[in-house]
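Run folding on both entries below.
>entry_1
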Amino acid sequence: MATKGASVKPFAQFDAKQDAEALYGAMKGLGTDEDAILQLLTARSNTQRQQIAATYKNLYGKDLVDNLKSELGGKFETIIVGLMTPPVLYDVNELRAAIKGAGTDEHVLIEILASRTAKQIKEIAATYKKEYGCVLEDDIEGDTSGHFKRLLVILMQASREEGINAGCIDEDAQVLFEAGEKKYGTDEDKFITILGNRSAEHLRKVFDQYMKISGYEIEESITRETSGSLKNLLLAVVKCARSVPAYFAESLYYSMKGAGTDDKTLIRIMVSRSEVDMLDIRAQFRRMFATSLHSMINNDTSGDYRKTLLLLCGGDDH
């Protein structure tokens, strides 16, 4: 069953054998029909792509992803391989690369751990252990430090409280105010505890109350009172509590704004949200910025890579 906000939905007349044959044909002989490959794969759900890969192996004794890798290249290859990866495994591989690469890609840790649901985080932790034989939380702890590490570890527990605790709204807002704006220096632990453990709907009420007490949006205070990785993580948690699609719309905008494109972020969001909330992200994007996601991708990318991104975007918002 497709999610309401998905731009990529299961294909109704799905036939795994027919699709496997079409992909084989697109890669057989001289030259590759990239257009046939991208048109087909962006019009199938991830579950359907897994069935195509299994059928392909049965028919031809070959691994579909390996064949795609040998035929394609560059960013186009990266996005197609991303689409062929089951969603939880995709997140796991991204986290592993972020931790094990040269230096830590904190941006990836922040994006995935701040935006995924509790159920997804539990699945990510289990799959990470299965794939890599080690504990994600340990790897994150070994690769980060200080308050930043503490909040990541809290998010890894995936144990946010449920619902709104009406009796705590004023108190939480007051604690945040006294931990930051009101004192000299900042008590980061208080921010971490409240932002890491309360439910999104509870936090939205706390943010409203915080604005009344302090005269500031919580984001303004975090930006003033904290810095570096911790600041970026706290802001991501706040933005996701307010609206996950708005958080991704902003991330996509800044991945393309200005000189150069952050293709890794652009690919990761377009692949991982296409079957979740891409339509909501597009709507938020149009509301927040003076352009549409479609036209920004169109102006910022090229070739088969651009065609694939635009198909995942699923349309324009004028």
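>entry_2
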Amino acid sequence: MLVWLALSIINSSMVHTFLRHSLFYENPRYIMFISMVINDAVQLSLVTALYVVSYIFRKIHASVCCLLIMTAVLTTRSTPLILAGMALERYIAICFPLHYTQMCTVPRTLLLIGIILILTSAPPISDLLITVVKEPPSFFKTSIFCDHSLLFRDRSIYYKNCVFDGTYLSFVALTLVYTYCKIMLTAKAASGLASVRRARNTVLLHGVQLLLCMLAFVVPSLQAALISLFPHLSLEIRYIFFLVVYIIPRFLSPVIYGFRDEQFRKYWTRYLRCGGDAQQRVRPV
């Protein structure tokens, strides 16, 4: 809970810094970043709530569990696609700098975020529709242990999600590899530009984030196997995977942009020190 509280403070301070300065919310790069921060904050809050509920109450109403699970799945699947969008933005900024202002605009960025939300909301909605058709109406009035596999029990849902996850994670991975290679070639042609090196390192860190995000799709099977072997340690096993899969990756977003980006770091650290007066005392870089 202390880790969740610390991350919540960091994320809320970043959102506050973003909203108070027009140079951030008029820049597609920072719009994508803050959408990642908000997505991570919602996901972390939901996953923490699910963990606390499973620890204290064990079982909750199926309809409440359905709402929590669907929102958590949506935010979990949004993260890789937002990473791909951020990598493409860096690719355009480095490889097509003269066309950047025409290609990367605020309306297009907001449209991309909307498309990501629509794409990632399709699987949980389809899970719900299949469950409504397959399960009796009384199922949603029962109390269950709030877990995706126990809520959406039909095997067709499992196979559908495997196909979807494999397809879109492959797309994100190929996008990151392509943008990284292109930025690497640009870095060799303009080795003296620090901005090119920073963009290359940023895309590389996005790759690390993607690998950590993929744990959320691999770990459930491993977690279920360990719980079946050690049922008396089920809560401890869930807690360890909770830290590795959901907490640690959430620290990377503040590191990549909050600490590495000089412009955002200047405003953010000044806000942390001075609070609301930072807007009057800091001039745009």
